[in-house]
Amino acid sequence: MICSMTGYAVKTRDVERGSLQLELKSVNSRYLDFHFRVAEELRALEMPLRELLAARLARGKVECRLAFTVATARADQLEINGDLLATLHALDDRVRRQMPEARPLSVSDVLRWPGMFGDQDIDHVALAPEVLALAREALDEFSASRGREGEKLAAMIVDRAAAMRAIVARVAPRIPQAQALYTDKLRERLNEALGSASDERILQEVAVFATRIDVAEELSRLTTHLDEVERVLKHGGACGKRLDFLMQELNREANTLGSKSAITEVSQASMDLKLLIEQMREQIQNLE
Asked: Which residues make beta-bridge pairs with 68?
């Protein structure tokens, strides 16, 4: 599957005493670059998350945000610590016997006392399996979104490659005839200009020039590179760097085609090819 480097996914999971939320989003990058925004109490889970993501992703600037929201307890879920309450009552009586002017503990003071509702601490280490399970769900959705985007980009690239093949197929049959006509005109001009020069010298000059404007090799290499582009897309996987290299090679051949052009039709074909190559290159920058 061809994947884009642009993707997004967010997943939420309810756990004991709260809920977890994991968000993934990415944009294009030359390498695989992670940025984590993790709650401090969950910082120990960053490395397992990094390993999980690195096993599935090849390129892209990926931002991972992990948050834990503590659930608000309902009244029927609260249970007062009886032993602590009795201890506070005894201490309150003892203090006020020795210090009659002391203010007694209020209900709000008692309810806010640490541990009055039992152990409210959250074991964040025990959340690790839940976090990794949530990350796998988010990663599946994230990869699917990148795959859908990559499929669209691949279709566009194939379409542009087909357009380039059409240009090559249209121009190639015209080149031998056009070059023959051009060399005939060149021979006549050389005859007029050189006058007394031998026919052999004129033929040599024409032959040298004909070799310089022969673009059959460039057209052949263009076709070969287009074959490789389609092969890479068909094979799938992380192919962005390979395709980017092929765009450089295609652009090199298109430039050479334009520089060796002897007729307007070939010059126009070179410009059209370079436009299509640039359109493909822009989209390839987003492929993994």
From this structure: 20
Q: Give the β-pairing of 60-70 and 32-38.
A: parallel
Whole-angstrom distance, CA of residue 102 vs CA of residue 95:
7
The 10s digit of each residue's pLDDT in 232-273 is 999 988 899 999 999 999 999 999 888 776 677 888 889 999
Scanning the structure block, which residue is given the tokens 């490395």?
A: 47
Whole-angstrom distance, CA of residue 125 vs CA of residue 110: 30
* The model's pTM: 0.69
Question: Hey, what domains does the chain have and what are their CATH numbers?
Answer: 7-73+126-146 (3.30.230), 80-111 (no CATH), 147-284 (no CATH)
User: What H or E segment, with its residue span, contains residue 33?
Assistant: strand 32-38
Q: Which of 280, 3, 288, 250 is nearest to 158 (CA)?
A: 280
The model's pLDDT over 25-69, given as tens digits with 9 standing for 90+, comes to 999 998 999 999 998 878 888 999 999 999 999 999 999 999 988
> Look-up: residue for tokens 């610590």?
81
**Angle (CA) 146 57 36, round 5°:** 95
